[in-house]
Amino acid sequence: MEFSEVLPRRRMVRLYRPDPVPEDVLDGVIAVVRRAPSAGFSQGHRVVAVTDAETRTRIAEIANERWYLDRGREPWLSVAPILLVLGVSEDAYHERYRRPDKVNAEGAEMTWPTPYWWVDSGALMMLLQLAAIDAGLASGFAIVHRTDELKELLGMPGDVAVVGIMTLGYPAEPPDGDPADRARLRSMRKPLDHLVRRNRWS
């Protein structure tokens, strides 16, 4: 699939068919974790791919899927056949930037102008979305407030912070989404020159 075909399909999906995703397809998607950017090649990404139905149901409870159901929406976290719990180890970044080739002139770790572990987490999420689209899957993303419960459920290490949950599966709607919804979103898109400037902002 060409990038020009992939990009228009990049959207968040909350309606999935219950059809299981073949193991080799899932393997192909999650393999991109090893290619995801990480500052200084810190490799702090941590992902748990959950396919077990009972565990997915429990994750949906922890992530408060009930909020959507109470508003008349369809279940999605409990229905998507795969939940990718995205995490990141901040410690991995500090460890990497305390090594001799990364310390500053005083021999200390740099002061982080931006917490790059979160920047890299966003980059990973986008790579996973694009890999999913290329594999014929759809994806969505949900935040989790009760991260300690989620980490305990999955046995995640203490140094890993939960970024959120990515849903993966076959969409229960056309690949490009509902035409009326697409039109609504198009009408809401800000002009490019409102978002991007050249050389200077003003």
Model description:
With 202 residues, this protein is of the alpha+beta class. 37% of the residues lie in helices and 14% in strands. The chain has nine helices and four strands; from the N terminus they run H-H-E-H-H-E-H-H-E-H-E-H-H. It has helices spanning 3-6, 23-30, 53-62, 66-69, 90-96, 116-134, 147-154, 179-188, 192-195; strands spanning 45-50, 82-89, 138-142, 160-169. The mean pLDDT is 92.
Question: How do you describe this structure in short?
Answer:
With 202 residues, the chain is of the alpha+beta class.
Taken as a percent bin, the fraction of beta residues is: 5-15%
Low-confidence stretches: none
Count up the helices. 9
Rg estimate, integer Å: 19 Å
Main sheet properties: 4 strands, antiparallel
Note the run of SSEs as H and E.
HHEHHEHHEHEHH
The overall average pLDDT, rounded, is 92
* Number of E-type strands: 4
Straight-line distance between termini: 39 Å
Structural class based on helices, strands and sheet pairing? alpha+beta
Task: List the keywords.
37% helix; 4 strands; 14% strand
List the helices and strands and how they pair.
Layout: H1 3-6, H2 23-30, E1 45-50, H3 53-62, H4 66-69, E2 82-89, H5 90-96, H6 116-134, E3 138-142, H7 147-154, E4 160-169, H8 179-188, H9 192-195
Antiparallel strand pairs: 1-2, 2-4, 3-4
